[in-house]
Amino acid sequence: MKASWVCAVALLAACASPTPTPPASPVPTPTPAVTRKPPPQADARIRRIPDAQWEAMRSAGVVRPGCPARRADLRRVEVNFRSWKGGVKRGSLVVNRDVAEDVAAIFSDIFDARFPIRSMRPIEEFGGDDNASMAADNTSAYNCRQASQANSAAADSPHANGRAVDINPRENPWLDPRCDCFMPTARHAARTAGKGKILEGGPVWRAFTKRGWIWQDIATPDYQHFDTGYPSRPR
């Protein structure tokens, strides 16, 4: 009897439904890593004047007999700048080789400060015409100007020696003593805060003056202009 009972129990156990195996937990999908673009940099580069640019400078007359700076004295500084609409553009300035590192560092500071610049093109792209460059609100440096223009070519001229920079001329005009009028326009002559304007103590002023450059180093207001001193001499 006992043996029959044991067999019955064993048979029931064998016939019982097996305990279900719980379903495996789903493997979580890994979250893709977020790739962040590095912030833009000024990426300033100093180069010798390329052949094509030198020929353009000669054709425009911004280098010619009587100009104090020779090709070997000049360098091309390529640098990113903050555009008027907030983007990043690449520009270039021609300067004397003895201030090229200064200019590269200055415009790197200006870029980091997010100061906007309308245009940065070499003066030969305007036929060497400073008035045309100013009207286009163009930031420029070297220019051995013709005698009909202000600061015409001379051994002492900061621009003709590549040791001067003009920034955003429309927002930072100069008072032309020949007409006693602001050029290229008097619209932004007042030194109040505004987009692209240079103010004493502001980021552009600090970037230049901490390296020994002088703001508007002439007898009349010239808010766009920085140089290393007049008469221009090697640094």
Structure description:
The chain has about 240 residues and is α+β, with helices and mostly antiparallel strands. The chain has one domain. The chain contains 5 helices and 10 strands; from the N terminus they run αβαββαβαββββαββ. The strands form 4 sheets. Strands 1-2-3 form a 3-stranded antiparallel sheet, covered by helices on one side. It has a 3-stranded antiparallel sheet with strand order 6-10-9, with helices on one face. A two-stranded parallel sheet has the order 4-5. Helix 4 links the parallel strand 4 and strand 5. Helix 3 runs antiparallel to helix 5. The longest helix is centred in the N-terminal third of the chain and has 14 residues, at about 1-15. The N and C termini lie far apart (about 120 Å). Mean pLDDT is about 90; it is low at about 1-15.
